[in-house]
Amino acid sequence: MARKKIALIGAGQIGGTLALLSGLKHLGDVVLFDIAEGIPQGKALDIAEAAPVEGFDAKLAGTNDYKDIAGADVVIVTAGVPRKPGMSRDDLVETNAKVMHQVGEGIKQYCPDAFVICITNPLDAMVLVLQQASGLPPHKVCGMAGVLDSARFRHFLAEEMNVSVKDVNAFVLGGHGDTMVPVTRYSTVAGIPLPDLVEMGWITQERVDAIVERTRKGGGEIVGLLKTGSAFYAPASSAISMAESYLLDRKRVLPAAAHLTGQYGVNDMYVGVPVVIGENGIERIVELKFTDDEQQMFNHSVDAVRELVDACKKLGAL
Ligand code: A3D
């Protein structure tokens, strides 16, 4: 059986980490694409030279030519600009929408059968621009944010309760911004929901509230520390778990920005919801029953995404 091919559009901080993780996890051959000359070539060669030490056989190539992504099974898109301190994700709309158009054209021409995962911010709007520009069916194009936001939530909860991160499950839904919705009722430790853990005295409601707030601002916390860019290790790990679920048909249930057609009362927009990812891409959208409070928070988050989509429409990007 031929090796799978993973195309990484954008060879920056996340792109380079994605390439290394793809090698370490034996996902397939990797092509790193970037408009910057030398960067994708240099990173590909550097990671190829790690392969004998790590013991993986993937071929790694760097390129500035879209034709080299031909036939890719998975495309992960990080092309664009990240946030600097003081910037919100929304400040990136104009620049990154143009980039999504170029990337969409490249995908349309060279790998129309790929499963595409967008990471470029502002995520929920950029994935819609990318899907439309690529012409791929919506179930083959999704956005990574929920796995990362949930991983942040899981990390903070595990640290607080002094338990293994493996046993902490959590869902963060809605748009990838400060209005995202960490759903505490569906967040568990070994199957025990957070509200029960509060009753059991494992964690106080005040700490849960503080962790929800820290999760919402998790990206900004890292931007503030790094000063020159945004998070890249955890975003790369998160996207790789989605790619793996597609390539290995694992049918994992993960939060992802998916194209909604009426679910959760949302139409023709990408918003973070739980989905099943398998060999057919986004195979199912899981519709949770929200409480009134949760529905209100979710609607508020969807409104923030709608504003970004409208901004893209004004710019002529959609
Ligand atoms: P960075 O290290 O700057 O890499 C971006 C790369 O894109 C650079 O190497 C650029 O040369 C390249 N690039 C720019 N324009 C183009 C183009 N037209 N075609 C191809 N390549 C191009 O950024 P990063 O890797 O840290 O972040 C990448 C994106 O991910 C940014 O938009 C971030 O805001 C976003 N991000 C999203 C999340 C989510 O959870 C959704 C988390 C972290 C970062």
UniProtKB/TrEMBL annotation:
<dbReference type="GO" id="GO:0030060">
    <property type="term" value="F:L-malate dehydrogenase (NAD+) activity"/>
</dbReference>
<feature type="binding site">
    <location>
        <begin position="10"/>
        <end position="15"/>
    </location>
    <ligand>
        <name>NAD(+)</name>
    </ligand>
</feature>
<dbReference type="Pfam" id="PF00056">
    <property type="entry name" value="Ldh_1_N"/>
</dbReference>
<dbReference type="InterPro" id="IPR011275">
    <property type="entry name" value="Malate_DH_type3"/>
</dbReference>
<dbReference type="InterPro" id="IPR036291">
    <property type="entry name" value="NAD(P)-bd_dom_sf"/>
</dbReference>
<feature type="binding site">
    <location>
        <position position="152"/>
    </location>
    <ligand>
        <name>substrate</name>
    </ligand>
</feature>
<feature type="binding site">
    <location>
        <position position="89"/>
    </location>
    <ligand>
        <name>substrate</name>
    </ligand>
</feature>
<dbReference type="InterPro" id="IPR015955">
    <property type="entry name" value="Lactate_DH/Glyco_Ohase_4_C"/>
</dbReference>
<dbReference type="InterPro" id="IPR001557">
    <property type="entry name" value="L-lactate/malate_DH"/>
</dbReference>
<keyword id="KW-0520">NAD</keyword>
<feature type="domain" description="Lactate/malate dehydrogenase C-terminal">
    <location>
        <begin position="148"/>
        <end position="309"/>
    </location>
</feature>
<feature type="active site" description="Proton acceptor">
    <location>
        <position position="176"/>
    </location>
</feature>
<keyword id="KW-0560">Oxidoreductase</keyword>
<feature type="binding site">
    <location>
        <position position="96"/>
    </location>
    <ligand>
        <name>NAD(+)</name>
    </ligand>
</feature>
<feature type="binding site">
    <location>
        <position position="121"/>
    </location>
    <ligand>
        <name>substrate</name>
    </ligand>
</feature>
<feature type="binding site">
    <location>
        <position position="34"/>
    </location>
    <ligand>
        <name>NAD(+)</name>
    </ligand>
</feature>
<keyword id="KW-0816">Tricarboxylic acid cycle</keyword>
<dbReference type="InterPro" id="IPR022383">
    <property type="entry name" value="Lactate/malate_DH_C"/>
</dbReference>
<comment type="similarity">
    <text>Belongs to the LDH/MDH superfamily. MDH type 3 family.</text>
</comment>
<feature type="binding site">
    <location>
        <begin position="119"/>
        <end position="121"/>
    </location>
    <ligand>
        <name>NAD(+)</name>
    </ligand>
</feature>
<feature type="domain" description="Lactate/malate dehydrogenase N-terminal">
    <location>
        <begin position="5"/>
        <end position="143"/>
    </location>
</feature>
<dbReference type="GO" id="GO:0004459">
    <property type="term" value="F:L-lactate dehydrogenase (NAD+) activity"/>
</dbReference>
<feature type="binding site">
    <location>
        <position position="83"/>
    </location>
    <ligand>
        <name>substrate</name>
    </ligand>
</feature>
<protein>
    <recommendedName>
        <fullName>Malate dehydrogenase</fullName>
        <ecNumber>1.1.1.37</ecNumber>
    </recommendedName>
</protein>
<comment type="function">
    <text>Catalyzes the reversible oxidation of malate to oxaloacetate.</text>
</comment>
<dbReference type="GO" id="GO:0006089">
    <property type="term" value="P:lactate metabolic process"/>
</dbReference>
<dbReference type="GO" id="GO:0006099">
    <property type="term" value="P:tricarboxylic acid cycle"/>
</dbReference>
<dbReference type="InterPro" id="IPR001236">
    <property type="entry name" value="Lactate/malate_DH_N"/>
</dbReference>
<dbReference type="Pfam" id="PF02866">
    <property type="entry name" value="Ldh_1_C"/>
</dbReference>
